[in-house]
């Protein structure tokens, strides 16, 4: 029993005759007939009742038809898995990332990857970038994306693009009413900042004050600021819509802030799917500067 014989059986069944199947598939009627005959010989049963030009499935033909569909699906998957392997496409890809870039972008890029590489199993784990290097080192993930300060970057991290940062507060926050904010102004109010694990303790990236609220995700920080909890320094791509919709205000200031870069840390080598992901991230960053 061969896959092309099973396909011929299905084609004839779906189109009702050898002639109709030949017209729709572009395969000669004699070739389809020979394939079905060979399948019947190998199975030792008649799949069709033939009467002139009329065809009807036999009882056994009807009973095996669903399994024939399954067999072709399995054969197709086996072929695709082997083709992916020959092309260097990963069977599995594990990703770590932070949420400095909008979730709408990540949803779309994951959708696109699964459409393009449907047989690659993809896992995504969210955690602060300060923890990325250890996850790659332990081979828990294959590649990690995150926002770093120039001083805080892992030695193994590669630059993708600089990211503009915005000092923001809610429209009703007292800082939003000042024409220009200073370090002393910021120190009077709660900073909502990123918190991450460092060894056996939690470390918070507070800038000018010990008065802070540390959270592990940029989106949670943004939402807390929108709620009026405090002020924050956040990546512009993440707050762009909130600034446009006036749910956040950009604070005017003359402060010298650290440069931030979106970087990635990779494992031993990048496969086809990881490279496609890297290309998508790079392209998106080029549109948000």
Automatic annotation (TrEMBL):
Keyword hit for DNA-binding: yes
Keywords: DNA-binding, Transcription, Transcription regulation
Parts of the chain that traverse the membrane: none
GO MF: DNA-binding transcription factor activity; transcription cis-regulatory region binding
Protein origin, superkingdom: Bacteria
Keyword Glycosyltransferase: no
Start and end residues of each HTH lysR-type domain: 1-58
PANTHER family: HTH-TYPE TRANSCRIPTIONAL REGULATOR, HTH-TYPE TRANSCRIPTIONAL REGULATOR YHAJ-RELATED
Name the UniProt record assigns to this protein: DNA-binding transcriptional regulator, LysR family
Source species of the chain: Vreelandella aquamarina
């Amino acid at each position: 029993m061969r896959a092309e014989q099973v396909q011929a059986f299905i084609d004839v069944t779906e189109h009702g005759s050898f002639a109709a199947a030949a017209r729709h598939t572009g395969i000669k009627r004699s070739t389809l007939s020979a394939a079905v005959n060979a399948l019947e010989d190998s199975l030792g049963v008649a799949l069709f009742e033939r009467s002139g030009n009329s065809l009807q499935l036999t009882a056994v033909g009807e009973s095996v038809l669903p399994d024939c569909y399954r067999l072709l699906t399995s054969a197709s998957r086996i072929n695709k898995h082997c083709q992916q392997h020959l092309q260097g496409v990963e069977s599995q890809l594990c990703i770590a990332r932070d949420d400095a870039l909008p979730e709408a972008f990540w949803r779309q890029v994951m959708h696109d990857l699964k459409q393009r590489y449907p047989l690659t199993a993809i896992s995504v784990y969210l955690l602060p970038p300060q923890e990325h290097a250890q996850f790659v080192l332990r081979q828990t993930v294959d590649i990690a994306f995150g926002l770093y300060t120039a001083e805080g970057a892992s030695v193994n991290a590669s630059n993708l693009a600089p990211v503009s940062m915005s000092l923001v507060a809610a429209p009703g926050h007292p800082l939003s009413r000042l024409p220009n904010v200073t370090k002393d102004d910021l120190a009077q109010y709660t900073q909502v900042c990123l918190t991450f694990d460092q060894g056996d303790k939690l470390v918070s990236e507070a800038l000018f004050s010990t008065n802070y609220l540390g959270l592990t995700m940029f989106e949670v920080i943004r939402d807390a600021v929108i709620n009026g909890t405090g002020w924050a320094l956040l990546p512009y791509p993440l707050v762009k819509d909130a600034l446009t919709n006036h749910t956040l205000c950009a604070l005017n200031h003359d402060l010298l802030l650290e440069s931030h870069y979106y970087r990635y840390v990779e494992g031993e080598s990048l496969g086809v799917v990881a490279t496609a992901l890297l290309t998508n991230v790079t392209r998106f960053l080029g549109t948000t500067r």
